[in-house]
Design a protein that fits this description.
The strands form 5 sheets. The protein has a 4-stranded mixed sheet with strand order 1-2-4-3, covered by helices on one side. It has a 4-stranded mixed sheet with strand order 5-6-8-7. The longest helix is centred in the middle third of the chain and has 13 residues. The protein starts with a helix and ends with a helix. About 30% of the residues lie in helices and about 20% in strands.
Length: about 375
């Protein structure tokens, strides 16, 4: 959608889901107004900030209270180095045009800062060299950005710690959007909690560009096998677990933060001890996810321990007795809701703020009901 905007070419993009984030982005690009709301979408905020910085007229970006708390400063500083005028305070006032062909970005808080710069880079007269300062988080999402750009006619090169994008004309054709491996994680969870269940997830690609396709391998550790076929992915819950799958689970989520919630909820429900690391950036998402998941899982009897500063969550594999009437708070976070919902096949409880799933997966509960 952003590539079409910077090219002034509204190409056809078939969408399987009218999720909240997609609607926000589409409405912002089509509004024609100089005051645009990103609502609660961090993705839209970052992509639109970069896009509006390419335009000579000022635009104001607004959004929810939580959106105002989410990181944006590294992107703002990178755009200022290129001549953009961006306000110091919320809401953001952004005005271009951009000049120069080199900037610096700290992508340690979010890979979306880098994605936003990369997507607009081919439209700049001299292209753009982006120096990546510090450690980059969620690197698979940057590779996904590169794949989309190359598929649309742009060139992307790596030179040391720099990403070089020459000036180019994007080439837009009919686009096919992959099904989402990140969302698939919550159905892997449902199968893991119901051994013997088989579930076909349609349209998941074997040659996916998405890093979260690693969910296939990770959920094998929790008793789910995957058979990839022309229709998609056939998931099967394993009744008899292998002995090595009883060991404490040790995983680093630095590159796959969106898989954490489903993996943590599943491991707790199956009594599988774990130590998960690489979780620091989860405090900057739609909710403070590490804290939100700890609170919810503890309400359900799983005494997980977290170290927010180091980005660690641990679980000893034991469940404690809990009250009978349980209401857990989703903190208005779509992925927290989707991670907790499959646990209701084992534990009776309610989730406050279930409607948050509309942000990415409006049809989630209707589809989940098919697994029960």
């Amino acid at each position: 959608m952003l590539i079409g905007a910077v090219c002034c070419d509204p190409f056809y993009l078939p969408l399987a889901s009218q999720s909240g984030d997609l609607k926000v982005m589409a409405e912002a690009l089509a509004s024609g107004s100089d005051v645009v709301s990103a609502n609660d979408s961090g993705t839209a905020l970052r992509l639109l900030t970069a896009y509006f910085a390419t335009l000579p007229t000022p635009h104001v970006l607004t959004g929810t209270e939580r959106l105002a708390q989410r990181p944006i400063k590294p992107l703002v500083e990178a755009l200022r180095l290129l001549g953009a005028e961006v306000s110091e305070v919320w809401p953001l006032r952004v005005c271009g045009p951009l000049k120069g062909n080199r900037t610096v970005i700290d992508a340690s808080q979010s890979s979306q800062f880098l994605t936003a710069l990369m997507l607009i880079a081919p439209t700049l007269a001299d292209g753009l060299t982006i120096e990546v300062a510090g450690e980059m988080t969620s690197a698979p999402y940057v590779r996904l950005t590169e794949a989309v750009m190359r598929d649309c006619g742009a060139e992307v090169r790596h030179e040391g710690n720099c990403i070089v994008v020459p000036h180019a004309e994007y080439r837009l054709t009919h686009r096919e959007v992959e099904a989402d491996w990140s969302a698939a994680a919550f159905f892997y969870e449902a199968v893991a909690l119901q051994p013997g269940l088989q579930l076909l997830l349609r349209n998941l690609r074997t040659d996916s560009w998405q890093g979260d396709a690693v969910v296939r391998e990770w959920f094998e550790l929790l008793g789910v096998t995957t058979e990839l076929c022309t229709e998609g992915a056939l998931l099967k819950g394993v009744v008899e677990m292998r002995a090595e799958n009883a060991k404490p689970l040790m995983l680093d989520f630095r590159d796959y933060p969106d898989l954490f919630m489903a993996m943590a909820a599943t491991a707790c429900a199956k009594g599988r001890a774990f130590r998960f690391t690489g979780l620091s950036n989860l405090q900057h998402k739609e909710s403070r996810r590490l804290t939100a998941m700890q609170a919810a899982l503890r309400q359900l009897g799983f005494q997980v321990e977290t170290d927010v500063a180091d980005g660690v969550m641990c679980f000893d594999g034991m469940r404690r007795d809990v009250q009978t009437e349980i209401i857990v708070d989703s903190c208005n976070d779509h992925r927290v809701v989707m991670a907790l919902a499959p646990l209701r096949s084992l534990i009776p409880f309610r989730i406050r703020g279930e409607e948050a799933v509309a942000k990415s997966f409006p049809d989630f509960f209707r589809q989940l009901d098919k697994t029960m």
